[in-house]
Amino acid sequence: MHIKIENLNKIYKGGNYALKNLNLEIPNGMFGLLGPNGAGKSTLMRILVTLMKPSSGKVTVNEYDLAKNRREIRSMLGYLPQDFSFFSKLKTYEFLDYTARLAGMKNGAARRAAVDQMLEEVGLFEARDRNANKLSGGMKRRLGIAQALINDPKIIIVDEPTTGLDPEERIRFRNLLSTISSKDVIIILSTHIVGDISSTCDNMALLNQGKLAFAGSPEELIREAKGNVWLINATETEYLEINEKYPVISTIPSEGGWEVQVVADEINGYYGKQIEPNLEHAYVYFMENKLNQWTKA
Ligand code: ADP
């Protein structure tokens, strides 16, 4: 699978520019779309799942043009929106059976078998007779992913994947997605939480104010921040100064003061050393540093 986005623009009514001349290619595998709130992620997701049309520009999925072959592209899609909700009266298996029917699975016996298998895969088989509305937050999210996967989609789009999940459920959810990221499938995770994408994504893009700020692998983004992350041993007074001057990533109490991680080109006058950046450091570095310069340019 291959998605190509060319010169994509979306202007909402009132002149609000949500996407600005976006160019991006998404190959097979897990793809992280990262950016702060308002960056344009949901707008891009809604365009990709054919719920909304762009103002201009082109999207192609393999040989299909999104503007002309909506039906073909829809049949390849599985979508888990951020605010996924259930009909109040349906049991867990009834809900999944209903979505399978909507996805075009007409053969009753085959559909029921697929529903049972999917409930097993997401760990909801035991809960199949429970009212879908009464499931826990994590279980609802798993039922959401089950409905997105039931029709064997080639492109899976998940908006804000860990919203409302506790840490253990986050790991389960991530593992579930990794197991289905086979050779010819694209999984797009759209999120403002760096931790959602760090360990799992093969490729990623950073969106800011509707523009593409970075596209590449998480390792490449991390490499960009190399030499710009510091661990400073600071006294209480220094800490207050540092907090004013630099983006602080973390603070740990230490003997006689604080160990402060900051993103900066240099730390003139403070006692500290450079440390290896991780994705969170790189994200902050990019947002604080590069994008400020870039917005001014
Ligand atoms: P994200 O998902 O990254 O938080 P969105 O795609 O929701 O970003 O929003 C991008 C920009 O478009 C924001 O400035 C937002 O306020 C604006 N926007 C989103 N939806 C609409 C809408 N229906 N009408 C007008 N502006 C919108």
Please summarize what this structure is.
With 297 residues, the chain is an alpha/beta fold.
Descriptive labels:
297 residues; alpha/beta; Rossmann fold; 3 domains; 6-stranded mixed sheet; 4-stranded antiparallel sheet; 9 helices; 34% helix; 29% strand; globular; binds adenosine-5'-diphosphate
Account of the protein in words:
With 297 residues, the chain is α/β, with parallel strands linked by helices. It folds into three domains: 1-76 and 154-216, P-loop containing nucleotide triphosphate hydrolases (Rossmann fold, 3-Layer(aba) Sandwich); 87-151, no CATH class; 223-296, no CATH class. Helices cover 34% and strands 29% of the residues. The protein has nine helices and 14 strands. The protein has helices at 41-48, 70-74, 92-102, 108-121, 137-149, 167-180, 218-224, 236-245, 279-296, and strands at 3-12, 16-26, 29-34, 56-61, 64-65, 77-80, 155-159, 186-191, 203-208, 211-216, 229-234, 248-254, 257-263, 272-274. The strands form three sheets. Strands 6-7-8-3-9-10 form a six-stranded mixed beta sheet, sandwiched between helices. Strands 2-1-4-5 form a four-stranded antiparallel beta sheet. Helix 3 packs across helix 4 (108-121). The protein starts with a strand and ends with a helix. Adenosine-5'-diphosphate (ADP) binds at residues 12, 16, 18, 35, 37-43. Adenosine-5'-diphosphate binds at residues 12, 16, 18, 35, 37-43.
